[in-house]
Amino acid sequence: MARYKFLVLTNPNPGQEDEYNRWYDAVHLGDVVDVPGFVAAQRFRIDDAESFSGYRYLSIYDIESEDPQAAFAELTARAGTDAMTISSALDPNASLSLWRAIGPVVTAADRDRAPGR
Fold first, then answer.
1. For residues 60 and 45, is the Cβ–Cβ distance under 8 A?
2. Confidence tier at 114 by pLDDT (50, 70, 90)
3. Beta strand 95-100 pairing with 3-10
4. What is the 3-state secondary structure (H, E, C) of 68-104?
5. Backbone φ, ψ for residue 7 (5° rounding)
6. What is the DSSP letter of 2?
7. Helix, strand or coil for residue 108?
8. N vs C: which end of the chain shows fewer Cβ within 10 Å?
9. What is the DSSP letter of 26?
10. Is the pTM of this model over 0.85?
């Protein structure tokens, strides 16, 4: 099974940060991982006053699929329906990118067990 990371950079609309965060954490992440192929999600907030390209929030979704485009087609079909409500607190200008894994995950424990260490 191929593994991917789907990175989504977003912002709330002005004055709606609390609603944006409530919706994202309590509703949206769960709606997305209900889509076949999407297996995990985690959010981040930039920790620097100078935000990355103007975005303050990052969501990373794990996808496991031989056909990620089918997962995206289903995600798109659900967006804006009862299966995936979209909050008006979300600024619609987002940056989306799909990354395919090209190697295994390497951990510190793996390095500690490596021959010659």
1. no
2. low
3. antiparallel
4. HHHHHHHHHHHECECCECCCCCECCCCEEEEEECCCC
5. -100, 130
6. -
7. helix
8. C
9. I
10. yes
